[in-house]
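Residues pack. Consider this:
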Amino acid sequence: MLLLFFVLQQVNAQDRDIDKIIEITINSASITGMKQAMLTIVKEEEKDALLKDYDAATSSLYKSIENFYTSHYTDSEIRELLLFYRTPAGSKFAHDLLKRSSHSFPKGNSLKKIIDALVEKYKL
């Protein structure tokens, strides 16, 4: 029983670390801001549907990025990346990372594609 508790604690810690990496590398605040901006211009009767679609699409995006990190980095490497991102050079690197696209990141789930599809669907 104690071993199971320890294993669950480790899994939860790894998930939190990956969530932190994702937040740093994709600027999740801008994703939230974009959702709020879209809600201000969509028709009132379409807001619930937009929220559902937006949340489903961004959840898929997050899951793809999470899968990328878990398949390319060990738990130890994830912790090392977090430490690096907390340094001035790491912070600058993370900021620059947002400016460029990566050939390794999951394809077909880009935030721009998500936003474009929702803008078209809701005629925003």
